[in-house]
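Sequence only, no structure available. Ideas?
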Amino acid sequence: MGHRTTELPPLSGISYFIRELRYQEAARQTLGLLLMPLYAVLAQPLPALFAIGAVVVVLGVIVRLYASGYIVKNRQLATDGPYSLVRHPLYTGNLLQLIGFTIASGLWWTVLVSAWFWWFYYPTAVEYEDRKLRRIFGDRCAEWQKATPAVVPRSLVPRRGGGWSLRTSLSRNVEPLVLAYSFFCLGWIYRQI
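Reply:
I predicted one. Tokens follow.
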């Protein structure tokens, strides 16, 4: 049993295997990073779809940069800025990037792959992160989680906004690499128009 599932009821057989796979952060991140170049290499982009998709990808990168400038992982509960809109704004940025690459690729089947990928990995990632934060931060976290949606915001205007740091943003979650990688893959698709 992985450390992310030790608090969950025991399972066996195929149910155990599937649950463990869904909770594997490395598998989720690796597959997510592999989808971008796969979509880029196989892309059959249309100019209008590429433009829309590229805007959504850039928006996802901006959301990730914005969110990572607030977080001090496992030491401080982030509830300001993007964390006042959603509990997992880094996942919101990932979702926007996934949607953007799906649109930009011009490939119909990427909709199915992207939907499956999101459904398979992200509900368990949200559940685990929520459970971990409640264990670390207690009642304050539980109240914030009740009032704040997981990934899709109800509003686009943060209720509080102080505390963002560019230095923190660029030094956490390898954001500069994600940014460069995303733009490289977008550029690959653009070359095919």
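Residues 45 and 106 are 5 Å apart (CA to CA).
Hope that gets you unstuck.
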